[in-house]
Amino acid sequence: MFYRPEDGHGLPHNPFNAVVTPRPIGWISTRGSDGSENLAPYSFFNAVAYVPPQVMFASTSAKEDRGDTKDSVANIRDTGVFCVNIVEYAMRDAMNQTSGAWDRDVDEFELAGIERAECETIACSRVARAPANLECRLTRIVQLEGAHNFAVFGEVTGVHLRDDCLIDGVFDVLRYNPLSRMGYRDYTVVREKFSLKRPGE
Question: pTM score, two decimals?
Answer without folding.
Answer: 0.95
